[in-house]
Amino acid sequence: MLSKNNKIKNINFQKGAVSVLFGILLLSILLVISSTMFVLMFQQIKMSGQTGRSVVALYAAEAGAERCLYEVRNNMGTGCDLPGGSIISGNILNGQASYETTYNGVVEINSIGRFLGTTRKLKLNW
Predict the structure, then answer these.
(1) Which of 96, 106, 70 is nearest to 88 (CA)?
(2) 97/60 Cα distance (integer angstroms)
(3) Whole-prediction pTM value?
(4) Cβ(114)–Cβ(98) under 8 Å?
(5) Of these four, 9, 52, 88, 125, which has the most CB atoms within 10 Å of its CB?
(6) DSSP codes joined into one string, 56-80
């Protein structure tokens, strides 16, 4: 039979084990929460970078469409203004961004802008 001192030591040991288990559980919960927050923040940072590239790609597409529209309206006979339509391409931002513009010869211009792997398309009708 256990003496009174042994019973007290056994109870104190069990309280210590429960405290350790509770601490591990609490740390696990905190780890899950912080990991989730890190993943969400990383995705937001990645998306904000893609937004910047998207805007530049859209501006590249717009530059191509404006060039083509200028050539068509001024009847230049070159580039976009060839009879039956044509395709022009060009680079902006020291070659980092590019565009490819197609004119159907009637009333539609399609322009695709590219920048660092991001592509945006612009369509003009009149």
Answers:
(1) 70
(2) 6
(3) 0.64
(4) yes
(5) 88
(6) HHHHHHHHHHHHHHHHHHTT-SSGG
